[in-house]
């Protein structure tokens, strides 16, 4: 695990971003790994949907960790896996520490942890509170002897407070975060400014309008995540195929599907 953790950390380089096509179950993780992924990341939304829950702290810690272990087991042993743990699966920093111990037991060497607090007035957790949660995560990993990659998600662009982004990033890094994830930003000018202002690896979320990886690399981005987008696309195909079958009685949407034998062999 120590080797995988070091390898994962080294993959974050400004100008040569780590591209993560996020998985949501064992099969998607194995397909992504087989496509040449240097690491595998989970999407909390995709995982929640797979397990019959909505995204947004509705899934239980036990269910999430059990599912994570299956994903880790599904990919080659040397491949680093990082887990999206939403806001940490618990109300207190001590709860976050319990989650981290479970993440490490499952075999993952990285996490995303967000600062959204559902039900709060602003939608964002108080900075000091989030610092305590990140510090608890770092302490739990240090106790286990693992250099866990803590990707601190800053949800200011989702919550209408972009002016807080850099300040929150600095506070989270001081608390023990390794890198900073700022989703909700697509324009290159803003991404470039964030990459210059944040003194740590910057992760952006690919969305409609996001520049290609090569341009993001030139802006100084260290990590590009596809997030729930791939799972959404898979479910969109499912819906199109269902609508076509029920309305037209045809199956054209399924052309180009993964070959059954190839996929079955991949999962063997």
From TrEMBL:
The keyword RNA-binding does not apply. GO terms for molecular function: lyase activity. InterPro entries: ICL/PEPM, Pyrv/PenolPyrv_kinase-like_dom, Pyrv_kinase-like_dom_sf. Pfam families: PEP_mutase. CDD domains: ICL_PEPM (cd00377). Gene3D superfamilies: Phosphoenolpyruvate-binding domains. Keywords: Lyase. This is Isocitrate lyase/phosphoenolpyruvate mutase family protein. The lineage of its organism: Bacteria, Bacillati, Actinomycetota, Actinomycetes, Micromonosporales.
């Amino acid at each position: 695990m120590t080797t995988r953790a070091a390898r994962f950390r080294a993959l974050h380089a400004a100008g040569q971003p780590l591209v993560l096509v996020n998985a949501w179950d064992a099969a998607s993780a194995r397909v992504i790994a087989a496509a040449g992924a240097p690491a595998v990341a989970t999407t909390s939304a995709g995982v929640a949907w797979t397990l019959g829950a909505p995204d947004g702290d509705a899934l239980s810690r036990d269910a999430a960790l059990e599912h994570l272990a299956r994903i880790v087991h599904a990919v080659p042993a040397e491949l680093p896996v990082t887990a999206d743990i939403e806001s940490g699966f618990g109300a207190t920093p001590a709860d976050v520490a319990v989650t981290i111990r479970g993440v490490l037991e499952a075999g993952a060497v990285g996490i995303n942890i967000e600062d959204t607090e559902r039900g709060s007035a602003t939608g964002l957790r108080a900075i000091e509170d989030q610092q305590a949660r990140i510090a608890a995560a770092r302490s739990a990993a240090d106790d286990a002897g693992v250099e866990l990659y803590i990707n601190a998600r800053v949800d200011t662009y989702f919550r209408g407070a972009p002016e807080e982004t850099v300040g929150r990033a600095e506070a989270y890094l001081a608390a023990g975060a390794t890198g900073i994830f700022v989703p909700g930003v697509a324009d290159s000018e803003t991404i470039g400014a964030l990459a210059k202002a944040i003194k740590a690896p910057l992760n952006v979320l690919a969305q409609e309008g996001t520049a290609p990886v090569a341009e993001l690399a030139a802006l100084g981005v260290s990590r590009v995540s596809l997030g729930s987008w791939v799972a959404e696309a898979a479910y969109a195909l499912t819906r199109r195929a269902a609508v076509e079958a029920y309305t037209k009685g045809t199956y054209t949407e399924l052309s180009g599907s993964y070959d059954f034998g190839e996929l079955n062999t991949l999962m063997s």
